[in-house]
Amino acid sequence: MHINILTIFPEVFDALNYGVIGKAKTNKSFSIKLQDIRDYPVNKHGQIDSKPYGGGEGMVMMAEPLKKSLNNIPKEKLGKVIYLSPQGALFNNTKAKKLSKEPSVTFICGRYEGIDQRFIDKYVDEEISIGDFIISGGEIAALCIVDSVIRHIPGVLGNKDSSKNDSFSNGLLKGPQYSRPEVFEEIPVPEVLLSGDHKKIKEWKDQKSIEATIIRRPDLLNNVKLTKKQRKLLEDLASQSIL
Prior knowledge:
The chain starts with a strand and ends with a helix. The longest helix has 19 residues, at about 200-215. The chain is elongated and about 70 Å long. Helix 1 (about 20-25) links the parallel strand 1 (about 1-5) and strand 2. Strands 2-1-6-5-7 form a five-stranded parallel sheet, with helices on both faces. The protein has a two-stranded antiparallel ribbon with strand order 3-4. A two-stranded antiparallel sheet has the order 8-9. It has two domains: about 1-150, Alpha/beta knot; about 165-240, Orthogonal Bundle (Trp Operon Repressor, Chain A). By secondary structure, the protein is of the alpha/beta class. Helices cover about 30% and strands about 15% of the residues. Helix 2 (about 65-70) runs parallel beside helix 4 (about 115-125), helix 3 (about 95-100) packs across helix 5 and helix 6 packs across helix 7.
């Protein structure tokens, strides 16, 4: 997979050189090109933004520097062009999986009050948001999305089942996790996890997954197709007044 990122702060993406994603980059599971929009100013003063027509707060990134930055990317490596925007569709795990199958993706990182709408209309294929809150620019949003997408590329994670068992992989949250020691500040690891009984352990994890979803994100249950066993578990939890 090849990823292009148009930004005025390419150094932010040094974060992709670490951990699982950094290893995937070293192993060439994906490649990345950082395009500094400031390399294409409209004048000798290095201008890439201007006051908005009609008035308003702040500045708007101009279309011309964005267009030139985009044109610097070979067409065969451009792929889907995505603008990180509060107006975009909400990003989720399903979208991450879908994007991981794209041969190339280009992310546009806006700043200030956003970018000229004419550039969006002509060159952007899709707008994506990471949530109903405002951050200083699209760079942090792009980092989140790239990290999430790369994890779905086969071979990136050491354990092939890791992404399958993550939160949201089946539409539900993941339950609690425990490690050594067996007792921490007088709190023991749940006995079932020490039993060696894989069937009981799976049943316990399934129950805790549904409990976590009910308590923290009940809205997710509206969009997930539960198995017969999971529906029965929900009924049992309801009878215990957990719902």
